[in-house]
Each structure stands twice: as C-alpha cells, then as structure tokens.
C-alpha cells in the first residue's frame, strides 16, 4: 500500500532543471515534491547565469530579473579585440539568485511541495515505487542534482567524469564594463581549455574564468587582466561563485526503472561552451510532460523521450578536445579577427542565426535601453 507520503514525482535539486520540471508536472496535475539541500534556492549560486536567446524563449521570465547583452567582444592575448553580434540575437544576464527564487515560487504556485534544507541520501526502488528516506515514495524519481549527482551514485547510473573548473567574482554594479558586450578573453595561460569573461550583470558586474580539469583557475590574474582591458572604473568585490561544469557530453546510462537523471546530472551541458541552462529548462519541462503521459496514458518512459530529443554534441565534443590542448597564445593572436574565426565565432555564439555577412562589425550595437521601455515601439 502506498501511503499518504506517496508522490507521482519526486525531484532532487531545485535549480534550473528541477524547478522547470516541477512546475510543468504540477501544472499538469501530478503530485510533485522537490528536495533541495540548500535552505534557499538563491543561496550559493554556482553559475554565471547567462541565458542564450533560445533559453530566454523557453520561459517567460520577469524582465527585472534580466538584462540584455547584444554582442560578444573577443580579446586576443595581445590585447586586440573583435566585436561580434547577429541581428535580432541577444543574451540575457540574469539576477541568478532572484531567478531561481522566482522559479521556486512558480513551481510552488503550480502546486509542487518544496523541501529546502533537505539533502537526498539513501533511496531504493521496487516494482511499484521509489522510496526516498525521510521524504516518502514516488512513481518516478528525477535526479536534477547537478554535475556530481547523488542520485546517479545511489542508483549506480553513469556519472560525469570530465569537467571544467569555474570561478567568478561579483563586483559592484558600477564597475564599468561596457554593458553592450559579453567580454571574452582567449588566453591559454590565463584560461587553459576555455576562456575568461566579464559582463555587466543585473545588479553586479561578473568577472570569471573556467579552465580545463588539470589546471587551477587564477581569478586574481584574470581580474588584473580584465581590469586593464575592459577599463574597469571601480573594483569592489561583493561576492563569489564557483562550480564544476561537466563537459564530457551526454552520459549513456541515465535511467534505471523508475529513476532518471536530468540537466547537468545527465551531462546535458555543452562540452564546448559549458552552457547548460537552456537544456536544463527545455528538457526539464519535456521530462515533466513525458512523465504525465507515462504515468497517466501508458506513454513512453520519460527517460526515452528525453534521450531522443537531447543533443548528441558530436562536433562540440571534438571542439572540446581541441580546446583542452590549450592552443599557444600566438595562435590565438593570429586567429582573432580573421574571417574564418569570425565565421566560427558566429556559429558558436549565435547558433547559426544570421549569416556571417550580416555581421555589422563596423557599427557597434546600440547602447542597451531599459527593457521596460521596450514596449514603446
Ligand atoms: C562557473 C559556472 C558558470 C556557468 N555559466 C553558465 C552560463 O552563463 N550559462 C549557461 O547556460 N550555463 C552556465 N553554466 C552551466 C549551468 O550552470 C548548468 O548547466 C546548470 O546550472 C545546470 O542546471 P541543473 O538544474 O541541471 O543543475 P544545478 O544548477 O547544478 O543544480 C543542482 C541542484 O541540486 C542540488 N543538490 C545537489 N545535490 C543534492 C542532494 N544530495 N540533495 C538535495 N539537493 C541537491 C544543488 O544544491 C542544486 O540546487 C555554468 C556553470 C558554472 C560552474
């Protein structure tokens, strides 16, 4: 007999994947519980929180939690830079703690039960249900608990083994980085295996770096470099973020019986750019829809549905290998600004939107306007 603490769906992790999944599942009538080890979803944020346009289209986020960034300014190690953007394309910087709190509230409003300060520990499953110690049982358990998933460990599923290490400083909002751009620094000494970045966020300026597994990020050196290149007016550190980015690609064995993984836990993170929020939102929501069909209408197992729709990252895995070699800085110096590199950059950042010929390189994108005024067309 399944007791009163039986849920249709228990989700471990109240972040992008878990909360997107919880909201949709609860709206569609499932009895949902989310368990999260943090006391508050906005605590200890581990991400820069930039949304690519595709992610912005996935969820309708209150505009005060985001700020539009029109283009990318790429810096070579020798200090030269080139600007890139595509008509109609933008990124959204986010008030990430605020966004996660808002998503939690939306999931709760939809009817999900949220347990904060609750760490997933032991669990088991039988033919009828998954039993989670301290919480109850469920017809389906989704582990959306990040790159180092405890759910994967508990149920013997595949686990991420290749990572980038990321560190980010939050500076006061008035630091002075040109707000039109995501400033990216290619430099194999400063950021072996990936890059360093700076951006004017919603209420802070963010300066970060991610490096390949064998290296250690030196955020002080990054700050020094950014300070000069971006001409920061003011450097007051007000916070810090850090975390692991899984870059090995999608894991093979991400489900067993009534248990499945989602988001970073399943390796749904680009091996090339380290971006995972768009996929967490999209596939989190998709898993919820499939769970409703599976539990109520003999649909396909949600793990199968998600697996079929998830990207394979074939080319991005190859590019990750190339980046892991950390090309010498003279090579970056020679590449940045060439037309082949512009085409590649366009492909990576703007996801094939607009043709390279449409790049308006000579004219910088317009200064950002207050988004609330966007409606006055
Ligand atoms: C430094 C850095 C910068 C990044 N920048 C970007 C970016 O700008 N744009 C982008 O798209 N992607 C970015 N990423 C990647 C992105 O953050 C992840 O892909 C995304 O957060 C994945 O969401 P998720 O919900 O799967 O997992 P996570 O966001 O990792 O959330 C997992 C949740 O599970 C909880 N949890 C973990 N273990 C347990 C447990 N045992 N019990 C209960 N709860 C648990 C955690 O507390 C957390 O809330 C970045 C990553 C890092 C590290």
Please give a quick description of this structure.
It contains ten helices and 17 strands.
Can you offer a commentary on this structure?
Helices cover 29% and strands 24% of the residues. It is of the alpha/beta class. The protein folds into two domains: 6-44 and 96-160 and 248-314, FAD/NAD(P)-binding domain; 53-94 and 162-247 and 316-372, 2-Layer Sandwich (D-Amino Acid Oxidase, Chain A, domain 2), CATH 3.30.9. The strands form three sheets. Strands 1, 2, 7, 8, 9, 10, 16 and 17 form an eight-stranded mixed sheet that branches. Strands 5-4-12-13-14-11-15 form a seven-stranded mixed sheet, sandwiched between helices. Strands 3-6 form a two-stranded antiparallel sheet. Strand 13 and strand 14 form a beta hairpin. Helix 1 packs parallel to helix 3 (96-110) and helix 6 (277-297) runs antiparallel to helix 7 (302-309). The longest helix is centred in the last third of the chain and has 21 residues, at 277-297. The structure holds flavin-adenine dinucleotide.
Average pLDDT, to the nearest integer?
91
Q: What order do the SSEs take from the amino end to the carboxyl end, as H and E? A: EHEHEEEEHEEEEHEEEEHEEEHHHHH
Query: From the structure provided, what is the oligomeric state, counting identical versus distinct chains?
Result: single chain
Annotated CATH topology of the largest domain: D-Amino Acid Oxidase, Chain A, domain 2
Rounded to an integer in angstroms, the radius of gyration calculated over CA atoms is 21 Å
CATH architecture call of the largest domain: 2-Layer Sandwich
Low-confidence segments, given as residue ranges, are: 354-362, 369-377
Task: Please provide the count of β strands.
Answer: 17
Can you tell me the CATH superfamily of the largest domain? Answer: D-Amino Acid Oxidase, subunit A, domain 2
Q: Quickly count the domains.
A: 2
What share of residues are in beta strands? 15-25%
